[in-house]
């Protein structure tokens, strides 16, 4: 029998920083500890508690993908430090939250007489949430984060069903609360990330502990990993983005979930492959999970029933996945033989035609509810927008149409025999780019933001009129304000592709580094002339046209699978009833 003790070392970590201990109350006034866990009794396996300590992390490092690439929106850089190092303290509680999650939190520390106060939910099943902070974070998750997670799920598992199941699953509840707290830090700078990190670390610890138990509930483990992966996508730092991306995929495969799954398996599968697709569209990667292996039904008979819009969204997701792989596999060199080169071009042209035919067939056979309810040209709408107003009613319809127009826009850019500058391809590009911009410019549903951002970025590259380009940048800023998604890098990328003159390096540095010493000195020409620090070295360019490197080990059958030091194969003879997850 192995007894694992976890010790709160946040006070010790804080002491390494100037003034760190001053933010803690005296030990005899308050003791805040994580919830007690039962003694772990699992088949023998070397646990991290027995490993030599290499740093001060209470939570051990998790298996990461290897590589040397990094980017402002995602990183493939191999990291050894855990996200706990990014937090100065974990033991205080914001107790001043009110009904509005935009209200500022209290900065005071709790000094009440409740020595049993904890930051994490208790382990016993609960009838309802009765802690003000937990209620706030769960409300934010349901109303803001779960909103877009459910954009392809007609049952709305993440925002309507799973929160109830989480009342009896602390691991799941902690993951929800982490995402809710993290969203607050994105939309309101008054909120700090330490609380979100604490819930994230707690849920991660509970997940890793569960993975050591062969009799675990594999459905809850996989669902928790998917939610923690969403948290990482919402985070900016590389160390917070790499823990669960491959683990969630591996756990989904372990559960046997695919396009034919139902219930929570379907919700997790489509969310997971959808997030991978958006990343691959950004970095021009091939999907690690080949769409032909999803098991999707591609019967395109004209739809006569209503309420099956999500099924058609899934089909379009498959088509966009195939197009993404087609784009990432564009040959970089010609064949040595002209005959072989011509044969390759003809083969790729036939493949291009097949994808174009799938898009046309999809658009011809979707139900009427997936077509626009209204369409106003720019000269007709009152918003003074440069784009048409495309009114789509259902969220799944908006997502499906965005993916459809994105697919058509991409096809116009990668025709094997015709350059995208040819009039036919240029017209095709601009038409579908304007449809994307028109949908996003007038949509009021924040639940489509994750798809809208990538579709809008692809469409924006095609724009040539300055007024349209400026409006797109305004749309990105609006999305950032409402959802907290980081889009600053898109401004820079698009301006470069549009050929806009570069910004003043001095102003750009002072704006992008508001906490640097440069903000305390006048700019050149305003008095003092202070030499600015040398710019950081350019980051290595992330390679394109490769299989998704973040998910290349996302399978427990591989020797370098995720969760290396924790994973034990499950006992598949165990069955668990999930009232809210089917």
Structure description:
- The chain has 582 residues and is an all-alpha fold.
- It has helices at 10-14, 132-149, 157-165, 170-187, 194-211, 218-234, 245-254, 263-283, 309-328, 338-365, 395-413, 423-442, 449-460, 466-483, 488-498, 505-512, and strands at 374-376, 389-391.
- A two-stranded antiparallel sheet has the order 1-2.
- The longest helix is centred in the middle third of the chain and has 28 residues, at 338-365.
- The chain is globular.
- The chain starts with 9 loop residues before the first helix and ends in a 70-residue tail after the last helix.
Topology:
Blueprint: H1 10-14, H2 132-149, H3 157-165, H4 170-187, H5 194-211, H6 218-234, H7 245-254, H8 263-283, H9 309-328, H10 338-365, E1 374-376, E2 389-391, H11 395-413, H12 423-442, H13 449-460, H14 466-483, H15 488-498, H16 505-512
Antiparallel strand pairs: 1-2
Instruction: Give the strand content.
Output: under 5%
Count of helix runs:
16
Structure classification: mainly alpha
Q: What Rg is obtained from the alpha carbons, in whole angstroms?
A: 25 Å
* End-to-end distance: 36 Å
Could you give the count of β-strands?
2
Characterize the largest beta sheet: strand count, sense, and whether it forms a barrel: 2 strands, antiparallel
Average pLDDT level: 78
């Amino acid at each position: 029998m192995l007894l694992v003790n976890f010790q709160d070392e946040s006070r010790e970590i804080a002491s390494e920083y100037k003034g760190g201990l001053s933010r803690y109350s005296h030990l005899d006034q308050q003791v805040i500890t994580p919830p007690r866990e039962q003694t772990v009794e699992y088949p023998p396996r070397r646990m991290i508690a027995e490993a030599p300590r290499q740093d001060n992390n209470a939570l051990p490092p998790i298996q990461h993908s290897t590589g040397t690439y990094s980017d402002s929106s995602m990183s493939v850089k191999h990291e050894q430090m855990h996200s706990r190092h990014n937090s100065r303290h974990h033991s205080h509680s914001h107790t001043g939250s009110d009904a509005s999650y935009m209200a500022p939190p209290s900065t005071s520390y709790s000094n009440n007489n409740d020595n049993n106060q904890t930051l994490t939910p208790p382990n016993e099943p609960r009838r309802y949430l009765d802690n003000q902070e937990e209620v706030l974070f769960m409300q934010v998750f349901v109303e803001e984060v779960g909103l877009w997670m459910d954009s392809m799920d007609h049952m709305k598992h993440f925002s309507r069903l799973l929160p109830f199941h989480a009342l009896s699953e602390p691991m799941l509840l902690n993951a929800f609360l982490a995402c809710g707290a993290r969203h607050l830090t994105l939309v309101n700078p008054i909120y700090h990330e330490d609380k979100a990190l604490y819930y994230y670390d707690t849920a991660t610890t509970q997940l890793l502990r569960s993975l050591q138990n062969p009799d675990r509930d594999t459905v809850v483990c996989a669902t928790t990993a998917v939610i923690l992966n969403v948290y990482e996508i919402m985070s900016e730092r590389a160390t917070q983005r790499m823990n669960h991306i491959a683990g969630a995929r591996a756990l989904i495969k372990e559960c046997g979930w695919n396009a034919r799954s139902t219930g929570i398996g379907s919700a997790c599968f489509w969310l997971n492959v959808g997030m991978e697709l958006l990343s691959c569209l950004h970095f021009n990667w091939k999907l690690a999970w080949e769409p032909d292996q999803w098991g999707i039904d591609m019967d395109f008979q004209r739809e006569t029933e209503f309420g099956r819009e999500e099924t058609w969204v899934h089909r379009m997701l498959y088509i966009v996945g195939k197009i993404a792989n087609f784009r990432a596999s564009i040959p970089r060199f010609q064949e040595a033989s002209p005959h072989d080169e011509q044969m390759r071009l003809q083969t790729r042209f036939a493949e291009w035609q097949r994808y174009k035919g799938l898009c046309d067939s999809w658009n011809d056979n979707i139900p009427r509810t997936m077509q626009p309810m209204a369409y106003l040209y720019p000269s007709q709408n009152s918003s003074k927008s440069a784009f048409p107003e495309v009114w789509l009613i259902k969220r799944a319809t908006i997502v499906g149409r965005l993916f459809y127009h994105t697919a058509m826009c991409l096809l116009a850019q990668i025709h094997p025999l015709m350059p995208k500058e040819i009039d036919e391809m240029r017209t095709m590009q601009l038409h579908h780019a304007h449809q994307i911009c028109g949908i996003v410019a007038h949509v009021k549903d924040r639940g489509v933001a994750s798809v809208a951002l990538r579709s809008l970025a692809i469409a924006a590259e095609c724009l040539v009129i300055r007024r349209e380009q400026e409006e797109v940048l305004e749309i990105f800023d609006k999305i950032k304000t409402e959802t907290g998604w980081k889009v600053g890098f898109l401004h820079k990328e698009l301006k470069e592709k549009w050929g806009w003159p570069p910004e003043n390096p001095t102003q750009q540095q002072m704006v992008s580094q508001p906490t640097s010493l440069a903000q305390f000195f006048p700019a050149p020409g305003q008095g003092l002339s202070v030499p600015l620090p040398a710019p950081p070295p350019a980051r290595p360019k992330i390679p394109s046209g490769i299989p998704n490197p973040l998910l290349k080990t996302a399978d427990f059958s591989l020797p370098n699978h995720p969760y290396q030091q924790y994973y034990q194969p499950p006992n598949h003879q165990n069955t668990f009833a999930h009232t809210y997850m089917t």
